[in-house]
Amino acid sequence: MKQIDVDTLRDWLENGRPVTVLDIRNSEDRAQWSIPGSMHLNAYAALKSGDPKALLQVELPADRPVVTICNAGVVSQVAAEQLSQRGMDAAALAGGMKSWSLAWNTAELPLGDVTVVQVRRTGKGCLSYLLASDSQAVVIDASLNPTVYLHLAGQRGWAIRYVLDTHVHADHLSRSRALAEMTGAALLLPRQNRVRFAFQAFQDGDTLAFGNATLRAIATPGHTDESTSYLVNGQALFTGDTLFLATVGRPDLKASRTEAEDRARTLFQSLRHLLELSGPTIVFPGHASEPPAFDTRPICDELGRVSSRIGAWLRSEDAFVRTILDRIPPTPPNYLKIVELNETGALPEGDVTDLEAGANRCAVAY
Predict the structure, then answer these.
(1) How far, in Å, CA of 102 to CA of 7, rounded?
(2) Rounded to an integer, what distance in angstroms lies between the CA atom of residue 141 and that of residue 149?
(3) Coil, strand or helix at 179
(4) I need a surface site. Which of 82, 111, 127, 344 has the fewest CB within 10 A?
(5) What is the distance between the alpha carbons of residues 10 and 153, in angstroms, rounded to a whole number?
């Protein structure tokens, strides 16, 4: 049975090649995460049972290939075979949505002396950043293979000098340590006692210069105790999982109910502090709530507009805590293992898609 790999489909979508992506999963699975621009036909059960007519009524463009999608890339092969028997150029995505969790795209935004490249893990919603000034580059929250950042920097003639994380992540494996080792860049992490490998501690008020730009650390605990946001040239704010464009980070991971309440109160103060910054400051969050499309449009917004969306939450600390604790989403199933690996700095060998599969759940429901 014909299959295509994630890199091929990613390349087609990034370059605008006409292709029909047909998602045959059940509606519940699709609601968790999907490929931008894909069609949906709830045919998984029928295909799995061997129904030869499962796709008989679906109408698809005849002038482009079809790529069928399921969770693990098995039942989608049955779908591709049925479409091929109808004379269509059809293939299944090898590994399905599990493999797609590593797919990515980019969006670029110039901001004065700094150029920001948002590296979007569209299969999971993780947002990392490659930013540069005068050919000197910084990477924030690397969540993809280090070669991706090396490739993007090399295309632009940039040298990666610093690699930073905003906090110890729970939904994806950090690639920051590996990227720093590969490039010889300095690895900077918020000051804390969680990780068990060498790094340069970076704390509230500390700064670093790259090219004509200056990055300043702002302690924003709450999502985790060490969570830190980074302000670049006073105009670009990288908030990790503390502040999103329409909601905020969850305070409960690895915490009891009492600890989560305490963290929520801390988060309240951190958010109030961030919202004191200039309204035109551009917020670049650590995650997207929807699969980032292949549209080259950065997922960001002015702080003033973000404030207008969440400002009502921050009128009262007690009301904020109640709102946050009532809206926490289900706990990510593999977060304890991911946190353990991120604290040791170890990247497991082989396929990590089972460990990282699924949508991120770092935000409180809006």
Answers:
(1) 9
(2) 11
(3) helix
(4) 344
(5) 19
